[in-house]
Amino acid sequence: MTSLLELEQVQLAGPHGDRLKALSLQLQAGDRVALLGRSGAGKSSLLAVINGSLRPESGQVRFKGVPLTRLTRRQRAEIGTLWQDLRLIDELSIGQNVNAGALARHRLGWALANLLFRIGSEPSRHCLRQAGLEEALLADAALDRPVRQLSGGQRQRVALARLFRQQPALMLADEPLASLDPAIAAEVLDRLLACDQDGALCSGAEAVVVSLHRPELIDRFDRVLGLRDGALVIDAQAASVSADDLNGLYAS
What we know:
By secondary structure, the chain is of the alpha/beta class. It contains nine helices and ten strands.
């Protein structure tokens, strides 16, 4: 059975040493992965290699058996990322930002229409509800509201809805909880990881990888990857990761 994602001996250089060191791993459909490590351990670099934003100096990345360098634009859309800085376009509306997640599945005319008119309101509303945005912001007039007018928590939900609108096979999230208060952070994480009664992710994604600075949340995941100085030092089922393992990961 082909893995959803394979990294084989991936090496990524940085200004002060390697950001990733001969890193190999596989992700399977159904994986819900917590990515842990101190600041500078290589978590963001790993996510950027997985989604194709960074190209490693050596090694290979394969997505659904195909080397990542050969993927088409549509295939790349199967890997969706919730960035730490959200990357919303402040001048555009809620609806336009959510629709941006679907751009890879449409032609140029659809993209232009999204800039000029309100389109795709029902799919956008569905994704915004999945992301937990309050009902008051789901009316047609509210969907036209610029995202620059939203609070931090609301912006986070719009970015999450954009990810759901993309319908990727693999969802990545780079420190999605860093700027949120604990209650909102817990809800955002639960929505990212939500499963139906058969165990499939409600977003439709086959797997999800979430970079975290909060190891106490790993009980929400099935698997833990731990990075230290660019090397993979933990790859285990979440239930088997001990306090000693985590202390070693974060030790100075």
